Amino acid sequence: MSTITIKNVTKAFGDVVVLKEFDQVFQDKEFITLLGPSGCGKTTMLRMIAGFEKPTSGEISIDGKVVSSEKTFVPPERRDIGMVFQSYAVWPHMTVFDNVAYPLKIKKLDKATIKQKVEWILDAVHLSQYANRMPNQLSGGQQQRVALGRALVAEPKLLLLDEPLSNLDAKLRESMRFEIKEIQKNFGITVVYVTHDQTEAMAMSDRVIVINRGIIQQVGSPLEIYRHPANQFVADFVGKINFIKGQVKDGRVELTGLGQSLAYDGPLTGQVVVAIRPENIRLSLEKGELHGKIHSMFYLGDVNDCRIDINGEQVRVIADSHSYDALYGNEDVFLQVREFLVYEDDGSDDHTKIVT
Known about the structure:
Elements: E1 4-13, E2 16-26, E3 31-35, H1 42-50, E4 57-62, E5 65-68, E6 81-84, H2 96-106, H3 111-124, H4 140-152, E7 158-162, H5 170-187, E8 190-195, H6 198-204, E9 207-212, E10 215-220, H7 222-227, H8 232-237, E11 242-249, E12 252-255, E13 260-263, E14 270-276, E15 281-284, E16 290-299, E17 303-310, E18 313-320, H9 323-326, E19 332-337, E20 341-344
Parallel strand pairs: 3-8, 3-9, 6-7, 7-8
Antiparallel strand pairs: 1-2, 1-4, 4-5, 9-10, 11-12, 11-14, 12-13, 14-20, 15-19, 16-17, 16-19, 17-18
Helix pairs in contact: 2-3, 2-4, 3-4
């Protein structure tokens, strides 16, 4: 069992506060992702859980035992944690077997036990056939699996992953997402994963914690985060989205600058910001709530990424890939809006601002 309780943790470096009043409980066997842009404080939180940084204030407990507080500090090696960094940190002078075995040798386990545990882990991370190879004979994905195996071989209660896939190519990143999730399920351990990649967060997490400039913006399942973003920052950071200013009037939202409107029966009044995900718009040649002209189209294989000009404003639409052959530049089209969000308009055009 490995439950992490974080109570009002704040971390400052001098006068700069990088994480403010972080307060969460990560449940046993849960896959938690800390998601946010560079510099938002997510890696700092991970390092405090690991014991590489001390909180300025607040408390961190693992399985009910305080490991960091004003009066208590348990060093990393006594926290029963496995950690994988962005850089593979694989020792170049050791074979795959010896790299993975290293934590067990430090614990002075006997050779037979080490051999048994390492062979078991190598099988779990699909590296059995590479046991005697040197790191320079491996691909990037294989080296990352070596680092993962080394973190798992001592059977930690908690696995911390700091952007472990960012150095891999796109196809390898995609396959490694599913491998890591599968390993987590098989081992039944708690994982805290740090990334700025929303696709990784969506694919692997039980819960996502979105952070901006050291402040938690939203906590929820990938579905909740994507479908019901708490504010414009979350909506903008997690996925693609169009923001259009408007005004609620007589059961509709008049879209500023577009000269068109959408039906709206929500609670907000006055000046608002309408947020529409591009995949929630369907292009039609016959009818729709909005209308405009095709400005440009980009064929991406699985989708047709379009820009639709509506009275000089461009709206992004993710259409079916087959529409690329059926539509033409400057053609009149209708936009059928399936779903949209409405936020209060604070007069700013900055969708990345801090929300407290």
